[in-house]
Amino acid sequence: MIDPLFEEALRILTFQSGFNSAVVVAGTAALGLAGGTVGTFLLLRRRALVSDALSHATLPGIAVAFLVGAALGLPERSLPLLLAGAVASGVVGLLTVQALSRFTRLTEDSAIGAVLSVFFGLGVVLLSVIQNLELGGQAGLKTFILGQTAAMAQGEAIAIGLLAAGAALAVALLFKELRVLAFDPGFAAVQGWPVGALDLVLMGLATLVTVIGLQTVGLILVVALLIIPPAAARFWTDRLPALTLIAAVIGALSGWLGATLSALLPKLPAGAVIVLVAGGFFLLSFLFAPARGLVAAALRQGRLRLTFAERRALTDLLDGRPVQGAAALWLRLRGYVRDDVRKGGALTPAGQAAARAAARDRRLWERFLADYPALLPAHANWGVDPIDSVLPGDMVRLLEERSAPS
Amino acid sequence: MQYLWRTPGSRTAPEEASPIGTPPLEIRGLTVAYHRRPVLWNVDYAAPSGGLIAVVGPNGAGKSTLIKACLGLVPSVSGTVEVFGRPIAKQRRLIGYVPQRESVDWDFPVSALDVVAMGRYGKIGWFRPVTRAHKEAALHALERVGMADFARRQIGQLSGGQQQRVFLARALAQEAQLYFMDEPFAGVDAATERAVLQVLRDLDAAGRTVICVHHDLQTVSDYFDHALLLNTRVVAQGPVARVMTPDLLSRTYGGRPMPAPAALGALGAEAS
After folding, report:
1. Which family does it belong to (chain B) (predicted)?
2. Ordered structural domains, chain B, with CATH
3. Rounded to the nearest 10 degrees, what angle do helices A48-56 and A195-217 cross at?
4. Which residue of B lies nearest to A189 if distances are taken between CA atoms?
């Protein structure tokens, strides 16, 4: 039962399951790559939700385009026509958001909420109307809502791949311009960069990714391809080039794995499967990324607390103060004390050395703090690490002379 | 959002420092209103060539708005702004800008050097990457504010004062003739205050003009040559000795008793 499924999965993943399936998987991966690349700047420019309004606003356009096609007597649904309709109404939705937040006192998030729901509602109504008309070829319309990789024809998959690569290339070309736009648009404008036009390019790229992702991922979830990969990548790095690359890789992997999974499980909506895979990457990054992940941060914090607790317990013992509870147990585990520490117990030779080092560190750091407060910001980890590993040797000697008990 | 409809500025026009005698900045009849409430009202001002100029006034007096309107970052209701005798869109290369520190997201994934290199983008031009020469210019600007050791640091890991110095270095990297700075001394530590002041004096010595929004009345006379007292309209302008008087300050601050700088007597200068 499992084995054939597994083998099938392996075949699709390695592009050996027939040309058509390979093209669809590669096309979806390219879509994910473009989503991650464009999405990085969308996220940094704080435009992620605007693109959600955009994608929901495509539905009435798709429905109207379908009706136009039927009125023109086209035999079956024509994908270019439907996508043109999607772009048109998506852009109208986008402009409505811009106009509402510019010319009224509505905040951008209220404008987004209003446009998103009204346009989507209109689209749903139009779809019901179409259903009652009993026209041919309408079955495919529903796939635009939740997505279906199987609906992708070979030529379409190739077109998606090419467009996605073009979007990623545009971001690479405009990397410097988009960086200053996202970080400090006011400064960019003062330098003479056409901030409005750059914003239009960015939203245009987001529109492109959204529209080519409509069929595969569906208009409800396509925004996830723009948001989740860069959000996940943010946990891994503090550098923009790396961030963009990691987001592109996470996006591509999500598309690749997601398309494979949905080929194996054709009853599940493809968009949801792809987004769940991306969500998995987000969860992994959030928890385990070494730079900003939850576990790494907790470990760093825990180690810091432990270091301080240990040093304090050691210096307490050195000064003849009793140490109790968990700290006592910890010192024993480290081999710094002999058994009965609660009765004022004795430090082992190793404990003696560690305690003297801790006391010296504290004394010297205090001296440094008192004598050179202006130098502190330059030493981010002052007071935490052993002083010899942070400050230059002659400075440490100077502090030792000054803090020697006279 | 607010920049979306801005007409792209001309980047191809020849940009030259101006003929002698043209003021670095000339504002005529500038009025800015938010929702029909004037924030700046009929501002006329001609900045003297060279020197450090403080824009002084109470909260909500429109100090930052004045700078932003000069730079074309907020739309004006009426009025003209000229930089060295020409509209600002044609003089972008001559302008350096230090925005308020709070105006950006410091968690942004860039290093201090990346931010300072942004000051070079205008010289680099479209599509081209930041070359080594430009990175070196950026590093040199960081050195001038005493931040070379932090070039690789992510900007979120810097202290507030260090972030302010990064912004200042970015403006230095622009190699401008006229600098606009929005509260460069706000909330900084003593080391940063010294560094900023040193940079201002260097710029002054090199013949540059610097216009600073400044909030600390006590230091205006020590740090600056000229002052523009602003409260929606221009209350007074001129050399600090002439305008930083108790009378003019109290008029600027709406009659509330203000701490006057101790060094200043009642010189009784009038608004020009």
Report:
1. Belongs to the ABC transporter superfamily.
2. 25-252 (3.40.50.300)
3. 50
4. B73
